[in-house]
Write a structure and sequence with these properties.
By secondary structure, the chain is mostly helical. The chain contains seven helices and no strands.
C-alpha cells in the first residue's frame, strides 16, 4: 500500500479532544430527559461539544485517508468506505460513523428543530461509540508503529 508518514501526533491530539468533549458531555448530561429539556444554554453546549467530537472523528478519518493515500474521496461517505475497505474501521463502526454524521448534520444545520427527546436518547446511549472509535484508531496507530 502506497502511503506517506502518518501524522500520529495530530491524530492523537484530535483523539484527546474527542475524549475531553465526551467527558464534558457525560459530566453535564442529566439522568432524566425532563431535566435535559430545561437546560437551556447548557443543553446547547452539550450539542456543541458533541458536534465538535464528531467533527474530530471525521477529521481523523480524513487524515488517515490522506496519509495512506487511499482512494480520492468525493465526500465523507467515501472516506468511511475507504477506511472500512482497508479494515481500519470495522463495518459496525463504519455504520456508527454514518449515524454520527447524520446527527451532526441535524445539530449543525438544525433541520427543522432538534427533537430534544430523540437527541437525548442518542446522547445517552451512543457516547461509548466515541471511546470505541478512539480505541480502534489508537490500535491502528500502534499497528503502524506510531
Amino acid at each position: 500500500m502506497k502511503s506517506r508518514k502518518l501524522r500520529a501526533t495530530l491524530i492523537r491530539s484530535k483523539l484527546a479532544e474527542i475524549e475531553e468533549s465526551i467527558e464534558l458531555v457525560s459530566e453535564h448530561i442529566p439522568e432524566g430527559f425532563e431535566d435535559f429539556s430545561r437546560m437551556g444554554l447548557v443543553k446547547d453546549g452539550i450539542y456543541k461539544r458533541t458536534e465538535f467530537a464528531i467533527e474530530n472523528v471525521f477529521d481523523i478519518c480524513a487524515i488517515i485517508n490522506s496519509d495512506l493515500m487511499l482512494e480520492m474521496p468525493e465526500n465523507e461517505e467515501d472516506i468511511i468506505e475507504n477506511l472500512a475497505y482497508k479494515d481500519i474501521l470495522n463495518k459496525e463502526m463504519a455504520e456508527k460513523l454514518r449515524r454520527m454524521k447524520g446527527f451532526r448534520n441535524i445539530v449543525v444545520h438544525r433541520y427543522g428543530k432538534i427533537d430534544d427527546r430523540i437527541a437525548y436518547s442518542i446522547l445517552r446511549t451512543n457516547h461509548d461509540d466515541f471511546y470505541t472509535f478512539t480505541e480502534m484508531i489508537e490500535d491502528f496507530l500502534k499497528s503502524k508503529g506510531c
